[in-house]
Amino acid sequence: MLNGHTGSVLAVAFSPDGKVLATGSRDGTIKLWDPRTGELKRTLTEHKVNVYDLDFSSDGALMASCGGDKTIRLWDARTFEPKAVLEGHTDIVRAVGFSPDGKKLASVSVDQTVRLWDVPTRNLEKILTGHTARVKSLAWSPDGKTFVSASTDRTIRMWDGRTGELKTVLEGHSGDLECVRYSPDGRTIASSSHDTTVRLWDSATRKTRLTLEGHTAEVDSVTFSPDGKTVVSGSKDKTIKLWDAQSGKLIRTLTGHTGRIESLTFSPDGKMLVTGGGGGDTSVRLWDMTDRKE
After folding, report:
1. CA dihedral in degrees (178, 183, 186, 187; nearest 10)?
2. Which DSSP state fits 144?
3. pTM for the full predicted model
4. Residues 6 or more apart whose Cβ sits within 8 Å of residue 25
5. pLDDT along the chain (294 residues), means of 10
6. Of 236, 240, 228, 250, nearest to 274 (Cα)?
7. Are 267 and 18 spatial neighbours (Cβ–Cβ below 8 Å)?
């Protein structure tokens, strides 16, 4: 267990080589840890207020962060020196994500917009509108041709990764959306909601394939294991659930957090699951996925 944050841990992300674990918090800081030893290496304080999301470019050159200060910040992911500040959103920026080739960055905000940025020039390319409430999460397809955004308007919007054109709207959840992720093979989209469910959507037919039921409160976070075989969800009910991605069967429930699970991610090799606490729990927990122990 990693302690150091003084607010909910809203974001957890690994560098592509797995050597750095970055965590972002309501305390306004980004902390950089050695995931093997648990040693805190550095604390970045530039955002000052809530850090909502973190993402590394696939080549490991850049890290993006976003927060309650309405900005997106780009960092040199080797030295963690600031590289650029992207401004334009008119409210809290809730999520950021690099395209697989690292050339574009998508961002979503409480201002109800989705934005596409050109990473080499740092220029804003497009403002995508359509959501009717705050947008909280985004994910790129592994081939970079598509990305999705999830909103408290209870919809997921699928966008063309190159042009920004709207492809379709996925509807089915009866509560606000919290998180959305693509499977590693791009065939499935997972979404989590205040309706206490996780839905798995077929990305080709754009229909719900499975609804995962078992949590007793809103589901704040969801992700896939790197091999795509497991879906993991974290909830306000203080539990983490592991599901079979193919059948939807519940495999295991992990307990230990004393508050909600705000964020979760796997190490690139799939051997470690990292979860960030909220609701009074400011811990980062590392779970060994080879035997599923903390």
Report:
1. -90
2. S
3. 0.96
4. 5, 6, 7, 8, 9, 10, 11, 31, 50, 51, 276, 282
5. 97 98 98 97 96 98 98 98 98 98 98 98 97 98 98 98 97 98 98 98 97 98 98 98 98 97 98 97 96 65
6. 240
7. yes
> Nearest-CA neighbor of 43 among 64, 66, 57, 25?
25
The CATH homologous superfamily for domain 9-288 is: YVTN repeat-like/Quinoprotein amine dehydrogenase (2.130.10.10)
Q: Give yes or no for a contact between 219 and 259, defined as CB atoms under 8 angstroms apart.
A: no
CB 233 within 8 A of CB 196: no
Burial annotation 52-88 (CB, 10 A radius, 16+ → b, else e):
bbbbbbeeebbbbbbbbbbbbbbbebeebeebeebeb
Cα–Cα distance, 170 to 262 (Å, whole number)? 23
Contact present, 72 and 81 (Cβ < 8 Å): no
